[in-house]
Amino acid sequence: MTTVSATSSALTAAAATSQSAAKETEDRFLTMLITQLKNQDPLNPMENAEITSQMAQLSTVQGITDLNNTLMALSGQMDMTQSMQAAALVGKEVLVPGDKIALGNGVATTFGVDVVSPAANVKVKIVDGAGQPVRTIDLGTQGIGVASLQWDGLNDSGTAVPDGAYYATVAATDADGVAVTAGTVTSGVVKGVSYAASGLQLDLGLAGNVGLYDIRKVL
After folding, report:
1. Structural domain of residue 189, as residue ranges?
2. Do 125 and 106 fall into the same domain?
């Protein structure tokens, strides 16, 4: 709610400033026009076309100002909507781009794969901090989308591996064996929401900060 209130206040202040500037410009224009009319040469008065042209220029400036105000209002509404959506995610576990897997007491954090185009063969490898393969998971055929995975903490031999930090890699191919685009995702619990110059940021604790549109899946 704090983020929504701050965004709304900033929008109101910006709109007020814009309206004040537009009013000042209009007053200045009318003052200059009246001064021109008062001091014009009686033998060479201003043509109607000149006055009309200047009035048209003022209307154009006012129209641009009104358009800017409308766009600012729409932008503010979008910001507030995003803020409320982000606030609703606090406390939820989400998947975002990344490759980290934390293993503690034999329980691993959720991870997954993000397949951009249909794949006939998808294989995920879990490696340790030294880059040594620990476990290979054959997912077979996968459609477009995010598939969440849970590792049991065992290596390919069925032996439990030490607790610590591990990483996931993915390789995907189509029916002809041609590589297709796929990436890994890691999980984090949304601790809070903040607003930065780059937009809304979600605090995932040890997983760091990510943008709202970095979320691939809500668990």
Report:
1. 93-218
2. yes
State how far the Cα of 111 lies from the Cα of 93, in Å rounded to an integer: 11
Q: Are 151 and 168 in contact (CB under 8 A)?
A: no
Give the Cα separation of 186 and 167 in Å (integer). 9
Residue of 127, 15, 152 lying closest to 73 (CA atoms): 15
pTM, two decimal places: 0.62
Claim to verify: residue 149 and residue 113 sit in the same structural domain: yes
Query: What whole-number distance in Å separates Cα of residue 186 and Cα of residue 125?
Result: 14
Instruction: State how far the Cα of 108 lies from the Cα of 159, in Å rounded to an integer.
Output: 15
Q: How far is CA 8 from the centre of its chain?
A: 19
The whole-angstrom separation of Cα 98 and Cα 71 is 35
Same domain, 17 and 70: yes
Q: pLDDT, tens digit, for every residue of 71-84?
A: 665 555 565 566 66
On whether the CB atoms of residues 212 and 78 are closer than 8 A, the answer is no
More confident residue, 200 or 191: 191
Question: Residues 175, 71: one domain?
Answer: no
The count of structural domains within the chain is 2
Residue environment code for 163-185, b if the CB has 16+ CB neighbours within 10 A, otherwise e: eeebbbebebeeeeeeebebbbb
128: domain CATH number is 2.60.40.4070
